[in-house]
Amino acid sequence: MSSQTDYDFVRDTxxxxxxxxxxxxxLAAAYHLIEHFQxxxxxxxxxxxxxxxxxxxxxxxxxxxxxxxxxASELVTIDLDGTIIDDPCDMGANxxxxxxxxxxxxxxxxxxxxxxxxTVAGVAVxxxxxxxxxxxxxxxxxxxxxxxxxxxxxxxxxxxxxxLVKDVGPENKTLILDNHGLMTMGExxxxxxxxMYNLERVCKVQxxxxxxxxxxxxxxxxxxxxxxxxxxxxxxxxxxxxxxAEWLAYLRLLEKVSPTYKE
Length: 263
Known about the structure:
Blueprint (H helix, E strand, L loop, with lengths): L2 H11 L5 H18 L9 E5 L6 E4 L15 E4 L4 E3 L8 H13 L5 E5 L2 H7 L19 E4 L10 H9 L5 E4 L3 E6 L2 H24 L8 H17 L1 E2 L2 E2 H13 L6
Parallel strand pairs: 6-7
Antiparallel strand pairs: 1-2, 1-5, 2-3, 3-4, 5-8, 7-8, 9-10
């Protein structure tokens, strides 16, 4: 698609929206995409986005909604202390979701979106001591920048937030929650979603390779490093007017399969 077409699509998707409204639309879109690509876990797991502005608020889905039911206008606004600022559906927020996401948003101001999943492949890899293995081109996007956090039970203990933040570190955008699942973070919703989509495929392939029982073809460490840097470069050159080209492609998909996210 041409850059002019991309511009027209952005204009049509975000007609006269404020920055806060645009974040709402993107966050609702991420929920629908996770549902579409079968990465949801009933009403559990969660995606959050920082509310633009001076307040330490973030948005999250109403507790009890399936991801495909989430609408931009119905997202819950909550602060870092757990106070509900706005709850259009009067459904509250997932307590474990608050623990995890308030920790990230409170400590990492570079993170505008945090996305957490429990998928079969993701939970399987999170249960392995090896973590993500450098088995193929896809996995080399995660050759560096992946943190791990030890499992402490369902995330209801607010004291866990300090340990989680320490484990994530100041820069990494991918987190393996041991024996639990996966989390990705981004400077915008599109980055967090794209990282998770790619990470999920990596986990699926890894489990398939290991299940095959066949010898693994190794990749030279220098090639691993080169490929990781190439992924970073492609991410930089794929920006179009403040949006990643891949995120725009996902939004075009939603226009066909689940357009209610914008409501």
